[in-house]
Design a protein that fits this description.
It contains five helices and seven strands, in the order βαβαβββαβαβα. It has 117 residues and is α/β, with parallel strands linked by helices.
Length: 117
């Protein structure tokens, strides 16, 4: 069973994502605090990280770059999500994929499956 780390600071969004993934048979871990993402990712060893572009009123691109620069974490695919199209910036920073909000659950799940295969 694949493990997904959800990096999102909005509780309602986190709850919806967690429910969606668990219904589909994925294990989930949550990290609403951008300062703890690297630590939590090391502890959880996820198969995929789903990360919001805006965390705590700041861009998460520096965090994405830090994940990709870490020897233990760089192989983990990171799927970025945002309400604005930041796909090019995310790709350049090392994201494996990008989904524009609002998204349909089927669209998100298809992208997650693609990245896990």
């Amino acid at each position: 069973m694949a493990k997904i780390l959800i990096v999102e600071d909005d509780r309602s969004t986190t709850g919806l994502l967690q429910t969606l993934f668990e219904i589909e048979g994925y294990q989930t871990a949550l990290c609403p605090d951008p300062d703890r993402v690297l630590t939590v990712a090391r502890e959880v060893a996820p198969d995929l990280i789903l990360m919001d572009y805006h965390l705590a009123k700041q861009e998460s691109l520096p965090l994405l770059r830090a994940l990709k620069a870490d020897a233990d974490l760089k192989a983990i695919p990171v799927l970025m999500v945002s309400g604005l199209d930041h796909s090019i910036e995310c790709e350049r920073a090392g994201a494996s994929g990008f989904i524009l909000k609002p998204f349909r659950p089927a669209e998100l799940l298809a992208e997650v499956k693609r990245l896990l295969n």
